[in-house]
From TrEMBL:
<keyword id="KW-0028">Amino-acid biosynthesis</keyword>
<dbReference type="InterPro" id="IPR001986">
    <property type="entry name" value="Enolpyruvate_Tfrase_dom"/>
</dbReference>
<dbReference type="InterPro" id="IPR013792">
    <property type="entry name" value="RNA3'P_cycl/enolpyr_Trfase_a/b"/>
</dbReference>
<feature type="binding site">
    <location>
        <position position="358"/>
    </location>
    <ligand>
        <name>phosphoenolpyruvate</name>
    </ligand>
</feature>
<dbReference type="Pfam" id="PF00275">
    <property type="entry name" value="EPSP_synthase"/>
</dbReference>
<feature type="region of interest" description="Disordered">
    <location>
        <begin position="1"/>
        <end position="26"/>
    </location>
</feature>
<feature type="binding site">
    <location>
        <position position="176"/>
    </location>
    <ligand>
        <name>3-phosphoshikimate</name>
    </ligand>
</feature>
<feature type="binding site">
    <location>
        <position position="176"/>
    </location>
    <ligand>
        <name>phosphoenolpyruvate</name>
    </ligand>
</feature>
<keyword id="KW-0057">Aromatic amino acid biosynthesis</keyword>
<feature type="binding site">
    <location>
        <position position="33"/>
    </location>
    <ligand>
        <name>3-phosphoshikimate</name>
    </ligand>
</feature>
<dbReference type="GO" id="GO:0008652">
    <property type="term" value="P:amino acid biosynthetic process"/>
</dbReference>
<feature type="binding site">
    <location>
        <position position="28"/>
    </location>
    <ligand>
        <name>3-phosphoshikimate</name>
    </ligand>
</feature>
<comment type="subunit">
    <text>Monomer.</text>
</comment>
<dbReference type="GO" id="GO:0003866">
    <property type="term" value="F:3-phosphoshikimate 1-carboxyvinyltransferase activity"/>
</dbReference>
<comment type="pathway">
    <text>Metabolic intermediate biosynthesis; chorismate biosynthesis; chorismate from D-erythrose 4-phosphate and phosphoenolpyruvate: step 6/7.</text>
</comment>
<comment type="similarity">
    <text>Belongs to the EPSP synthase family.</text>
</comment>
<dbReference type="InterPro" id="IPR036968">
    <property type="entry name" value="Enolpyruvate_Tfrase_sf"/>
</dbReference>
Amino acid sequence: MSSNGPAQKMTARASGPLKGRADVPGDKSISHRSLILGAMAVGETRIAGLLEGDDVLDTAKAMAAFGAEVEHHGPGEWSVRGVGVGGFGEPEQVIDCGNSGTGVRLIMGAMATSPITATFTGDASLRSRPMGRITDPLGLFGARAFGRDGGRLPMTIVGASDPVPVDYVTPMASAQVKSAVLLAGLNAPGQTVVTERVATRDHTERMLRGFGAEVETERTEDGHRIVLTGQPELKPQTITVPRDPSSAAFPVCAAIVVPGSDVLVPNIGLNPTRAGLFQTLQDMGADLTFENEREEGGEPVADLRARYSPDMKGIDVPPERAASMIDEYPILSVVASFAEGATVMAGVHELRVKESDRIDAMAVGLRACGVTVDETEDSFTVHGMGPGGVPGGALAEARLDHRIAMSFLICGMAANKPVTVDDAGPIATSFPIFEQLMRDLGAQLVRSNG
Ligand code: S3P
């Protein structure tokens, strides 16, 4: 079952060549943060290019439940009239964050230092994911959490009525944990400090500065420290959300593996904390170019052009690159299946606690497609079969995970036999126009039922 109804089986067959322009939707991470920071500012924030996927729409509803006025004006155009830092009201209903770890974890952070109580839940995927990584640091501010099964949703957070600032070292490379601490720190007096050993996506820091908060980032011997001065008045902003590099990854990788393809994916956000996949593809020999490189709204942006790349070689992906491409390993493992030689992805244990256990989901599905893979707790190796060498002909389980569903559909576009995913419904969480966009490029995608 998809999160929102009956399962939607979908099949991809040998396709192409894929040609044309792929206008992918707005960045999911920046869309969530635009709504949450807009709700914590005083006055009206205007947002253009918001991702209207289920995950972000759930965050929009949540912000309204905490008291912000959230309005939809047209495609991608939204406004949020915020209630100010510390101004959240107590929601009357359970907050349902659907499939979104980013939504629930950032919102928990944002409300944890206000004297209110809120109960959170989500779909079966989100209810299985660990929340202790968020509630541990929120406890240091004085918030209390009451969850199921040692820290899973449904979970009630009782916000701190007298919050204290926190100095926290994140135990895992996680932008969600870092962001939850920073958002909680907004309503604590004094300085809240987060230290991370590996740099994760820094949209929260950049956007907080844009909204007028004082945020300093210093490099230290073992990573870097982010220092936030609490209790600022956040000033409303006009935001244009860049297009999502994690969504761009799908048409880009499809073009790389489908013979004869040439696809332009314009206006992609290329923040260095997000762009690891594109470097990796180039290291493997992909014909990928960055055109028209520029800066928009404080983020680097370029048009990506990807062409069919029959000479891809497997590589060892450096583990220190993992944070900058964490959501892209599923689609990379598909590309790796069409390369010559082994691609070794190390330092990837965080993949086990995403919307699904992504190592296991890809391992099972790729094996069913005839690809040899090896896994350990922290690594994933794909033994590439070369262009035209992947048999396909499998039914892959999406496991309520949008990126797993899209990855296997791309696999089916270049494999010898069709690949079916049991449920393409979750794709709507991050890339609601995926099916139409890929068809417009020349992909053979058919719904098998429902
Ligand atoms: C996100 C952070 C990452 C990523 C997720 C979005 C964010 O999660 O996987 O899709 O917007 O902060 P982690 O923080 O768990 O690594």
